Automatic annotation (TrEMBL):
<feature type="transmembrane region" description="Helical">
    <location>
        <begin position="999"/>
        <end position="1021"/>
    </location>
</feature>
<feature type="transmembrane region" description="Helical">
    <location>
        <begin position="562"/>
        <end position="582"/>
    </location>
</feature>
<dbReference type="InterPro" id="IPR004869">
    <property type="entry name" value="MMPL_dom"/>
</dbReference>
<dbReference type="GO" id="GO:0016020">
    <property type="term" value="C:membrane"/>
</dbReference>
<protein>
    <recommendedName>
        <fullName>SSD domain-containing protein</fullName>
    </recommendedName>
</protein>
<feature type="transmembrane region" description="Helical">
    <location>
        <begin position="419"/>
        <end position="440"/>
    </location>
</feature>
<keyword id="KW-1133">Transmembrane helix</keyword>
<dbReference type="Pfam" id="PF12349">
    <property type="entry name" value="Sterol-sensing"/>
</dbReference>
<feature type="domain" description="SSD">
    <location>
        <begin position="944"/>
        <end position="1100"/>
    </location>
</feature>
<comment type="similarity">
    <text>Belongs to the dispatched family.</text>
</comment>
<dbReference type="InterPro" id="IPR053958">
    <property type="entry name" value="HMGCR/SNAP/NPC1-like_SSD"/>
</dbReference>
<dbReference type="InterPro" id="IPR052081">
    <property type="entry name" value="Dispatched_Hh_regulator"/>
</dbReference>
<feature type="transmembrane region" description="Helical">
    <location>
        <begin position="1041"/>
        <end position="1071"/>
    </location>
</feature>
<keyword id="KW-0325">Glycoprotein</keyword>
<feature type="transmembrane region" description="Helical">
    <location>
        <begin position="452"/>
        <end position="478"/>
    </location>
</feature>
<keyword id="KW-0472">Membrane</keyword>
<feature type="transmembrane region" description="Helical">
    <location>
        <begin position="945"/>
        <end position="966"/>
    </location>
</feature>
Length: 1146
């Protein structure tokens, strides 16, 4: 029985041209392929055009720019960078130790590290660094004259003579490590001989005990558990920072560069940190290795500035990727039996990648024009996707071509037309469904998923174009010119033929492997191969073909048990799929277990208390609450998210300041203080996850003048509720740092003391009468500030001389004087009698308040503490303009590494609801300032929560669109539905595997799940196409034909892809391992389900005859419409004849 007569179709012009001019066609396509590769190289390397943008290759692309939490994050960071006045030019040399610490974690496994031996081991590790000869040139220093930074502050002179001061230095002024070792020495136990008593003494200090707790295990408890198997040390290196002026003078720019802040921080600091990294690597690489001890306890894990083990691991993994590609090449060479065809096939795959690069980068339309300048690592790994799909297409085409050799074709063009009719049609369906599944990801909210789906889809399209043009011409050249060569390629081809002969696959190795997708001719009586006869003339028994003669009968006999086994497996994994949870990316999981980075990061994140890295809620004033950031004309692919908390990275968008915000008004200052108290006293800590016990500005307790001493908090982390205005209110002595200022006239260098009478008494209440306090320009506003005060002279930019209030005693509640609180829009100050008028009190603009606040922030420890709480902008002349932003920070019970996205977002939503209600209460007050809530982790948490619905909706959309394509291609909705059911079961098992493997649905998995539909659809579609093409009348006959036609091609494609994936499973970086695991699992499941479950399902309920045909749904309507049109045609003809007859009679 004839299965099909497609091979009798007339060849097209294209087929005739290819067969008539195979060499010219092949050379033409070869030139185009090589030119695409050369063009990309010229653009990228020669002309500097970013075909592949290296700056974005490490991006993941799960940010959502329009998410309100991402907008707030970018607005906050952009505002912090723009409002930089007074910050960029005051950096001391080697003062910013927080940028470049060396962190050490001693891990003793299950043993206690808080022993004499354990602490001595940590001290010895510290001495490796602070004891070396160059330590004085690299250590972090304290300065006694900040921000001038010219005199080093040496806190002690002998290393064993420890005053009770946390910021201990060595005799050269170098800050010693922050560690339990330093604390033990500080409290008089340098040799760790009385550990329990020393810890008890440390616990009595409100500053030192929180620091100590941050260095030991989170389970440490003074009352119940005095043991800790891990202890941490931070060696404070100082990079050789210079200030802004130094770098501008070095470049010869002086003060001419208006972008000094960005230029200074991003370029010079990065270079300084790079130099320090080189110093650490060059001098201590062997020391680090000895300390870590290959991860065997006891070990000391380490981390230092710009420590990046990823590069070395990537280089090792890239070598394994090359091995994977080599495996595919060798297997393809073995299967095809031709070195020439294999080379052409691999060139087809690689050149498809370069075609796609050019289309994706310059031609594909996007909302902002044409081309995507967003090439991530995922796009690069799409090469693996096309490696599998391209190899599968090559096997399909080659097997069809080889099998067509036994048919009777009048011309080569006819043979090529037959191959196109089967192989190319099958590949068109598989490519279309794969492209649709990838393109469906364009609906994703994540730009990384969108661009990966687009790039992978275009890659499949490019490969399909190549397999329809270049590869057929290469095969024709092989048959005509290369196949019979005895040398060159012919010599190479001897190897796979010899292997196949030894394996019993026949002389040419085509009997067992060369069975085409869409092959039908061997089953026809007309095209059956001649019978083989033995020496005695008897007909030899035909050699059995596995899929047709062994597997098909077996599957038909056991189809019900086979279906049951697959359904049970699917049901088990369905449970896992239902239990899957989004999981955030833990950075250490990217590295191999047992490596230093893995050990250090895991210990840092999981073994130490959250207070060591607390997460803050920022209550921000000065930004537009409703529209905090303006992205302008930014492309979505150019979006640069702000990292949690602060950094020097230039982020996307310009912050929208609230221009009505004025910090110097009494109204705002009162609102600010009231809000601090409300947060501290009225909000429920269990709902807003506030850390109890610290209160407002705990580091200022007992400090009468509100100036931070040089304490642990001055260079470390803040605790509790940080309220700048409360600190400024406590700052009574505003002349603390004016003693060194040169006075304009020595005659008036002495201070003048003023004594005031008491304020008037209200006769009704007996209290102070403040009824006069109505005119901000009145000198009476200042008269009753204090019982008495001293005025000293100091030069100021606003006036010739300014009276500075100092040594104040009792501060009146409504005092509006400089140095008191609150400060109104106009501030009074004192001038001396020798100036223009004799009035001792005169009011000036609120710039005085801003200047005094900036001075307060910059004094001593205050600068280290408060410079991240008040931000000022500058005008066109690069001078102070206004205080643009301030904030209150609230410490939460979460840490910055918190992975519970739901708990985190519940907290964020609670703060958002509170802020909305708070802003609504003041909506009618023109002097009210709105507050914006910013939490650095919120965008990451939102991404994690959206991963599940995004992945699920993407998979469902892919399945639906693939079903539509299959319905159209197969012209049978039952066959298409059974195929989609199979693909859906494969996808379910993959989701279940993520749960059982403990991976969950993280960022990497959310990207990789895109591959499932694209890979799993191919083999099922091949079988569907062959089932449909068969003209057998029974389900068994159709399935047998489909297995015989495509089984070997499916198996060959699967082996090549699985082999490449297996090599990737040995990679170092977890992403490459997961990528290989995804491909391996998907291909194995696709192979088993397509050849097992799907074929068994077709044996049970596959459509026969006209059942399920698409035409059945609309055939009746078409017949009815056809009859109606035919009837109308006949009526029109009759009318026409009648008119002609009437005309002839007339």
């Amino acid at each position: 029985m004839t299965q099909s007569d497609d091979h009798h179709k007339k060849p097209t012009v294209f087929h005739q041209f290819l067969t008539a001019h195979p060499e010219a066609s092949c050379c033409c396509f070869l030139f185009c392929n090589l030119f695409s590769i050369l063009l990309v190289l010229i653009l990228q390397v020669g002309l500097g055009v970013n075909v592949i943008n290296g700056d974005k290759i490490t991006k993941i692309g799960l940010e959502i720019p329009d998410d309100i939490h991402q907008m707030r994050t970018n607005a906050y960071e952009a505002a912090r960078q723009e409002a930089d006045f007074g910050l960029s030019g005051i950096m001391c040399k080697r003062s910013e130790a927080k940028r470049a610490p060396l962190s050490l974690i001693l891990d003793l496994g299950s043993a206690n590290a808080l022993t004499q031996d354990g602490l001595a081991r940590l001290a010895a590790a510290e001495d490796n660094f602070i004891g070396q000869s160059e330590w004085q040139d690299r250590c972090a220093l304290m300065w006694s004259d900040y921000p001038t930074c010219s005199v080093v502050n040496k806190a002690n002179t002998a290393i064993d003579s420890w005053p009770l001061n946390y910021n201990i230095t060595d005799p050269n002024g170098c800050l010693l490590p922050n560690s339990p070792v330093t604390l033990f020495r500080k409290y008089g136990d340098p040799h760790f001989e009385n550990i329990q008593a020393t810890i008890t003494a440390i616990s009595q200090n409100a500053n030192d005990y929180p620091a100590f707790l941050s260095y030991v295990d989170k389970d440490f408890d003074l009352a119940n558990n005095l043991e800790s198997s891990v202890v941490k040390s931070i060696v404070l290196y100082g990079t050789p920072f210079q200030n802004y002026t130094y770098y501008m003078d070095k470049l010869g720019l002086g003060d001419q560069d208006p972008s000094h802040f960005e230029y200074y921080t991003e370029e010079f600091i990065d270079q300084e940190l790079t130099d320090l990294n080189s110093y650490m690597v060059d001098n201590f690489e062997s020391t680090f290795e000895d300390l870590f001890n290959d991860g065997n306890t006891p070990s000391i894990a380490y981390n230092y500035v710009k420590y990046d083990p990823m590069q070395e691991l990537v280089a090792q993994d890239l070598a394994k990727i090359v091995i994977s590609i080599s495996f595919v090449f060798c297997y393809m060479w073995f299967s095809l039996g031709s070195f020439f065809v294999t080379c052409c096939g691999m060139l087809q795959i690689f050149s498809s990648f370069f075609y796609t690069l050019l289309i994706y980068r310059f031609l594909w339309p996007n909302p902002d024009g044409y081309g995507y300048d967003y090439f991530t690592l995922f796009c690069g790994l799409a090469m693996f996707v096309i490696l599998g799909i391209g190899a599968d297409d090559i096997f399909v085409y080659w097997d069809t071509w080889q099998a067509s050799e036994v048919e009777h074709h009048s011309t080569s063009a006819s043979r090529l037309s037959h191959v196109y009719g089967h192989a190319v049609t099958a590949m068109l369906v598989t490519s279309a469904t794969t492209v649709i599944s990838f393109f469906s990801n364009l609906s994703s909210a994540f730009i990384g998923v969108q661009t990966f789906g687009l790039f992978a889809g275009l890659l499949v399209c490019s490969n399909f174009f190549q397999v329809c043009t270049f590869f057929p011409s290469a095969v024709l050249v092989y048959d005509k010119r290369v196949k019979d060569l005895k040398f060159c390629f012919g010599l190479f081809d001897f190897i796979p033929k010899l292997c196949k002969k030894k394996a019993g696959n026949g002389k040419d190795g085509v009997d067992g492997l060369q069975n085409a997708a869409g092959l039908d001719a061997p089953l026809t009586e007309e095209a059956a191969p001649p019978e083989k006869t033995g020496a005695d003339g008897e007909v030899e028994e035909e050699k059995k073909q596995f899929f047709r003669d062994v597997y098909a009968p077996f599957l038909d006999k056991f189809k019900i048990p086979v279906l049951a086994v697959f359904v049970v497996i699917w049901a088990v994994f369905l449970v896992g799929a239902c239990l899957i949870q989004p999981t955030p990316l833990e950075i250490y999981t990217l590295f191999p277990p047992g490596s230093n980075f893995y050990s250090f990061t895991k210990l840092a994140l999981t073994r130490f208390p959250g207070e060591a890295n607390p997460l803050y809620v920022h209550l921000v004033f000065g930004l537009n609450v409703d529209d905090p950031v303006d992205y302008g004309d930014m492309k979505a692919t150019d979006f640069v998210p702000a990292p949690p908390e602060t950094s020097t990275t230039t982020v996307s968008g310009k912050c929208n300041f609230d221009r009505s915000f004025t910090m110097s008004t009494t109204d705002f200052q009162t609102q600010f203080l009231d809000l601090c108290n409300e947060v501290n006293n009225e909000l429920d800590p269990s709902i807003y996850l506030m850390r109890e016990g610290y209160g407002i500005n705990p580091q200022l307790e007992g400090v009468s003048n509100g100036v931070l001493s040089d304490s642990s908090q001055a260079t470390g982390k803040a605790y509790g509720i940080q309220c700048l205005m409360q600190g400024f209110q406590m700052f009574q002595n505003v002349s603390k740092k004016t003693s060194e200022v040169v006075l304009p006239d020595p005659e008036y260098s002495e201070s003048i003391e003023y004594i005031f009478d008491g304020a008037p008494v209200d006769p009704n209440t007996g209290g102070t009468d403040w009824s006069f306090d109505t005119d901000p320009n009145s000198d009476l506003n200042c008269k009753y500030c204090f019982d008495g005060f001293i005025v000293s002279t100091v030069q100021d930019s606003n006036v010739k001389q300014e009276g500075v209030v100092s040594n104040t005693t009792k501060i009146a509640k409504h005092c509006n004087c400089m140095g008191a609180f609150p400060v109104p829009e106009h501030i009074c100050f004192s001038e001396f009698d020798y100036l223009e008028d004799t009035n001792p009190f005169k009011c000036i603009t609120s710039t005085m308040f801003s200047d005094s606040l900036v001075k307060y922030v910059e004094i001593g420890g205050n600068q280290n503490w408060w410079n991240e709480y008040v931000y000022a902008t500058k005008d066109e002349t690069n001078k102070f303009e206004r205080i643009a932003m301030t904030e209150i920070t609230v410490q939460t019970t979460l840490d910055v590494f918190s992975t519970d996205a739901w708990k985190g977002m519940d907290m964020v939503d609670s703060w958002d609801a509170w802020a909305s209600a708070y802003n609504l209460l003041g909506a009618d007050d023109p002097n009210f300032s709105k507050v914006m809530v910013y939490v650095g982790n919120a965008p990451k948490w939102r991404q994690t929560i959206l991963l599940m619905p995004a992945a699920t909706s993407g998979v469902l959309l892919s399945l639906f669109l693939s079903w539509i394509v299959l319905v159209i291609a197969c012209e049978n909705y039952i066959l298409a539905s059974l195929a989609i059911l199979t693909i859906g079961m494969i996808t379910t098992i993959v989701f279940g595997f993520l749960t059982f493997a403990g991976w969950g649905l993280g960022i990497l998995e959310g990207i990789l799940v895109v591959l499932v539909i694209g890979f799993s659809v191919d083999y099922t579609v091949h079988l569907s196409d062959s089932y449909k093409a068969s003209e057998e009348v029974t389900r068994y006959g159709k399935v047998k034909f489909a297995l015989h036609s495509t089984g070997t091609s499916i198996l060959s494609g699967a082996i090549s892809t699985i082999g490449a994936a297996l090599i990737m499973l040995t990679a170092n970086i977890a992403f490459f391992v997961k990528f290989g695991a995804f491909i391996f699992l998907t291909i194995v499941l696709s192979t088993l389900f397509s050849l097992g479950f799907y074929c068994a399902l077709l044996l049970v309920c596959g459509p026969l005859g006209g059942r399920g045909r698409l035409i059945n749904l609309y055939g009746g309507w078409l017949d009815s419409a056809g009859r109606h049109m035919e009837e109308e045609r006949r009526v029109a003809e009759r009318e026409k004849r009648a008119k002609e007859e009437m005309k002839s009679k007339a």
